[in-house]
Amino acid sequence: MLRSKTTDEWRSIVNNKIWDLPEGEKRILSILKLSFDELKPSSLKQCFAYCSMFFKDFDIEKDDLIQLWMAQGWLHPCPDKGLDMEERGNEYFKILLAKSFFQDARKDYGGNVTKCKMHDLVHDLAESVSKSRNLHSLFLNGEVLDLESNLLNFKSLRVLNLYNADIMELPISIGKLKHLRYLNVLKTRIKTFPKSIGQLYNLQTLKIAYQLEEFPREIANLINLRHIYFGRYMKVPSGILGQFTNLRSLPFLKVGKETGPRIEELSGLNQLQNTLSIYGLENVRDGEEAQKANLVEKKHIRKLILEWKLDRPSHNVDNEDDVLKGLRPHDSLEFLAIHEFMGIEFPSWLLLAKNLKEIELLGCNKCEGVPVLGHLPSLSCVKIKSMENLTCMGSEFYGDNHVNCGNGSSKEARPLFPALKTLHIEEAQNLIEWMEAPTEGGSRVVFPCLEELTLIHCDQLTSAPSHFPSLKRLVIRDMDSGGMPIASILSNQLTTLTNLRLSNVGGLTCLPEGMLENNKNLAHLNIHSCSELTHISEGFEHCCASLSHLYIGNCNNLRYLPDGILTSSLKGLSLWGCDNLKYIPDATGDGLTSLQTLEVMRCPKITSIPFSQGLPSLGVLSIEDCPELSSLPGGLEFCTSIRRLRITRLSSNFTRWLHITP
């Protein structure tokens, strides 16, 4: 917890009498207090002590906490460092997290902490160092309070947190809280605001109950607002949002057609941070009007969502190419989602999105190609869904023309998709060809970091690349002609796979030869509803030493499992709905010593389960609808870990129903 100390400071800490205290909570609290005493500046100590306002084990939202600190006046901007109040608060939060005053941190898509908790002992410390009840903050925490008669007792109130309070209205007297900087009425029953809300001129943060549908016009007076939150169905009048030039947080802008805000109201809101969602883009007239949003100047926006209405008249989509071109964001953007765009092509400004980490293209049904993405150095996740006109993914996808060769004397070409880890393609029903990338005579690496590939409802896809040097998880589902793409992806070059899931794939008779042998770290194998599958693998000779879970279901033509596939690493084995499965091999080596779950159901031709060496770890055994089964696995009498046993509808040699729960 303690860093950057001089020798004398460390000597003082070592000689502190707290180390003489006996083990226990008192000693721990004394050590924590020592760490608290070292916090600088003093405002950081105040910020920590304020956390005593929350219940123990409360999920603390980082942004909310910073807004509460800001309301107390503890976050002073640093113009010389270019830090505003929110950035100073973020620095404080990082310090407290690094010193373990916060724990259980949760992160968003970009790895940024969004929530955390405090250990109970740390919370006790926060309470002990809070000098008195904070008279500038009122948290109802779901309690019932007569606001009308009590608010006047809190004229110096800076924070009024009514989250989840059982109240239906705010009193008119709220306008007298001249010092109020934070007001939260989320999850209350409030449906309207009094007109006096417009007198809260110092208000910085306003969180409005989502069921409130009419935006109070009086809020236009609150020019110091930095953070405002409201529900998606809020009817916001035109001409109001554009006045909040200090705004850092805006949940979304829903562009109106005849009423509601216009997109140019975003023009001056250049302090907006983190996430911006813009809906109703079908109401933007053309590219010139779109440019008035001035997104290119909003350098603090990290996540941008652009959405058109799905069920709009088709004759209004001719200008959408220009609109999207006009919505060019700042180059610092990290996440981009484009939903229901009906233009023909994606904008050229995507070529310059050097900081983009994730892109999501949803419902762009008129686009015949995907954007040029392969050259983007930071892109880690691509999701493509519902692109009906997409027929081929080729050179334009890889962006080969936009990747320069290495510097200096090096002739080696730079990799394509150098940072991509996840690629998801879904509901591209007309996608036929996914071409190999141009590899410059084998010198160029493609997808060097790709770990997860998902293909769903790509019904006509007949080809796919064969070069995935880091692929760990492959999911292929609902594909009529999936046999060929699978054979390419699971080529002999692939050696890194740990998780394979195949479901409802046509044309698949078996896994490619050598696939199981080559991928020695394969842990999860799940094959479901592949009606043409007759066997798992050709020429299988080696055991799957890392396989921990094997699930095969509704594969009606599967006749046998290969010898060597059941090893001591297996923890879960599930076979169900395989009408022609006749043969289950015995386990290799020391037997199924790790098997915890065994399920065999609706396999009418199975005659035996020949696990001769016993199942010492078995906890769940379920055997159902196997009328030809003549014997159970050996050694069940020694399975002391069984907690659930279900055997039903077997041959006449067995009891019809047995259900045991220890």
TrEMBL record:
Q: What organism does the UniProt record list as the source? A: Rosa chinensis
Q: What is this protein called?
A: Putative leucine-rich repeat domain, L domain-containing protein
* Residue stretches making up the R13L1/DRL21-like LRR repeat region domain: 263-387
InterPro entries the UniProt entry points to: LRR_dom_sf, LRR_R13L1-DRL21, WHD_DRP
Instruction: Spell out the coiled coil positions from the record.
Output: none
Highest taxon above the source species: Eukaryota
Q: Which UniProt keywords apply?
A: Leucine-rich repeat, Plant defense, Repeat
Q: What does the entry give for GO biological process?
A: defense response
Q: Where is the Disease resistance protein winged helix domain?
A: 53-126
